[in-house]
Amino acid sequence: MRDTLRAHGLRFSRPRATILSYFGERDRHVSAEDVYLDLRRRGEDLSLSTVYLNLNVLSEAGVLREFQGTGGQKLYDGNPSPHYHVICRETGEVLDVPAPVVDGVPLNQFLKRTIEEATGWEVEEPRIQLRGRSPNAGAADPGDGSTSGS
Amino acid sequence: MRDTLRAHGLRFSRPRATILSYFGERDRHVSAEDVYLDLRRRGEDLSLSTVYLNLNVLSEAGVLREFQGTGGQKLYDGNPSPHYHVICRETGEVLDVPAPVVDGVPLNQFLKRTIEEATGWEVEEPRIQLRGRSPNAGAADPGDGSTSGS
DNA sequence: GTCTCTGCAAAGGTTTTGCAGTAAC
DNA sequence: GTTACTGCAAAACCTTTGCAGAGAC
After folding, report:
1. What is the distance in angstroms between the Cα of A57 and the nearest Cα belonging to chain B?
2. Coarse DSSP helix, strand, coil percentages of chain A, rounded to the nearest 5 percent
3. Which of A64, A150, B50, B86 would give a disulfide with B95, using CB separation of 3.0 to 4.6 Å?
4. Which residues pair with B66 in a beta bridge?
5. What is the nearest CA distance from A7 to chain B, expressed in angstroms?
6. Residue A25 has what DSSP assignment?
7. Quick one: CA dihedral B2, B67, B129, A28, positive or negative?
8. Nucleic chain D contacts, Cβ below 7 Å
9. What pTM was computed for the model?
């Protein structure tokens, strides 16, 4: 824990470590408020602005991955490895999909390389996000936004 | 104009037609406020909420494409055809990139198909968005957020 | 001892909503 | 005549910021 933080040039603090371990426990796709509420429920005593601050810091450090949820809300994923998110328009469920292989490399890399060659821009790892309908949609109740493995 | 609207089941109105023609004029990547201000400058008399309403309606109808700009702001693109956006972290410039071809089909379709087969979800056309640094970054002044052809 | 992080509360910016009036069909 | 769209203002929403105090190094 401390080591993970130090490795990214971050100081240790109780809230920060708690947030980090929260994402380590299982794969999650959660909003800042989810993190805040979940941790409060467990008796952790931290503030919402600290959660926001640390989600930013941790995703800039590459420990978490930030992406856009439904309704203009940011979501965070504890799995920083290359994968895609499919978000259900109806239930808000998030499904992780590993990158398919193209030309012998993960699609991400293929795309990054192709675009850099075509444009002359320096581009970051592509974040690919799709909207769709989960098999639960249309029948089931709205989900809680955090679903399925990362 | 009227026909484009009717084809999507939308009524004609002056603000709506104005917004639509605004996107038709040249390729743009603009925020709701940009649309509003540009049109006001031209003497059009519409309200900001009307702009928001119509940008939503038009992008749901598939006439415009909505995507996430820098700073949690939505941007709209008058070009609904499959292409990707590369957004400069520093200048906010937006560059369009056509979809590369994989397996004989545009990457979008390849990805959609692959993911549908892998997951059993019904997914929409992938929206691919990349962050990066434009060749102007680091030296030049911050851009205006609307750059380059769609 | 210094520098970063926390917590609180308040502000910020974008987008949505309610409602009465108006225009399209 | 009915239904949808507009405009205005207010509200809602998520996120960031300022500052004093506490904690990590």
Report:
1. 16
2. 40, 25, 40
3. B86
4. B76
5. 24
6. H
7. negative
8. A 2, 5-6, 11-14, 31-33, 48-49, 52-53, 56, 71-74; B 10-11, 13-16, 45-47, 49-50, 53-54, 57, 72
9. 0.82
pLDDT tens, residue order, chain A (150 aa) = 788 999 998 999 999 999 999 998 877 899 999 999 999 999 999 999 999 999 999 999 989 999 888 777 899 999 877 788 888 877 778 888 888 888 898 898 899 999 999 888 888 888 788 888 888 776 543 334 444 445
Which nucleotide C1' is nearest B72 CA?
A: C14
Q: What is the dihedral of CA A88, B76, B106, B115, to 10 degrees?
A: -10
Instruction: Provide the residue type at B125 as one letter.
Output: E
Cα A103-A109-A110 angle, rounded to 5 deg: 40
Structural domains for chain B: 1-80 (1.10.10.10), 83-135 (3.30.1490.190)
Residues of A in contact with B100 (CB under 8 A): 110-111, 114
Rounded to whole angstroms, the Cα distance separating A1 from A6 reads: 9
> Tell me, what amino acid is at A85?
H
What single letter denotes the amino acid at residue B5? Answer: L
